[in-house]
Amino acid sequence: MSYYLILILGCLSALSLSTTNEVPTIAISCGNTKLDTLPKYQQYMGTLEFKKLLLSLWDEDTKVVMVLENELSLEDFTMKGTDGHSLFQLFENSEGRRFFPSVDQPEKALEMLSKNDFAVKVYNADTYTNSSGKIIALADLNENIHDSNDDSRQTTLLKHNNEVSKIFTTLCTQYTNVVLVFSGKMNPWIEKSEASNAHHLMTRHLMAVDGKSEIFKIVDPKGKSLIYSVSYPTLSVDNGPDTPLEPSNTNTDVYLDDSRESLLKVGTTFLVNGTKVTLRFRFERITFSWELKSIEYERDSTVIQLSPKQPIGAQKGLSYFSAGPVIFSNGSIVLKFDEKFQVQPWLTSENPKFSDPQEQNSFFTPPILAGLFVTAIMLFIVTWGITMIMDIKTMDRFDDPKGKTITINVAE
Fold this sequence. Notes:
This protein is an alpha+beta fold.
């Protein structure tokens, strides 16, 4: 019963996502602003609610500027640069930031502000000079930055971080109170249908990364499974140095064993310091879900089972995605995927493509556990009360009204 309930809720969630364009939004400020009164984290915010938020941030002494990225997703905030820090170091270093991971069409909220006597002006050095009234500046990064040599998403986001930093620093130098809101026009996982002019959910998969990068990818001959990582994993033996795997030029055939319905093995051969190594990913299907149980590591005719450090699996029809690192080990041998890692077995489409990844966040959060604990106490009290009431017994013997009454003589 619980499985069907989860399935129904999942379908409703997918339906709601397919008709909306939700993007992450973050706000920072300098000076004395109303940003501190906002909650530090709010999971979802609709267009009207976001418009009210912008209205609440503005006053005569505060300059509000909104910066829009053409495409923005939560993954953009989790990506790391070569120094190990976030690509948006401006927001990483801001202590009083406010983050809203899911805002529905923030650009539309700006359009609605015109009905509240606001003037949405394109940001430049003279936006607030000799201007009065309700003004919200808008900076479009895709219009401000024109560079045809961008070869990766990381490079673009780093440049945009520098651009946003310049805007924020300049405003804070010129004015006392400043609020900067950074958001996007569209979620990259949502694409527009030309036929219906409507938005629909685009399949999340990693195949669209920069083609110049050397990637780790295994596609079996029958198209039943996909194994993908942004870079090749590293191998460490007996606490030795991490040695990256290299593609084998002599044998590029992919091994596939699908003889059993509930078991799927897929792998191929790589090189480690010139030595041939075979990795076979072992998938097992359990009713409505699948799990990557282990990786068979074969070297010099010796096969060792490497187990994942954390459970890797999803419901049937969904993929598993992790931003990394993903570690497989067996004591002395450690195989590690440092960057993005995604797998999915038992694909049914003719053109192998990842399905949506299953949400990896824990369902039982502390508030939910606290609610269940309080509910359990209340149920115990109610159950104990009902039990006590049911244990109350009435008298089973009464005086006979037709019999002789009790007479008490009172002496004078």
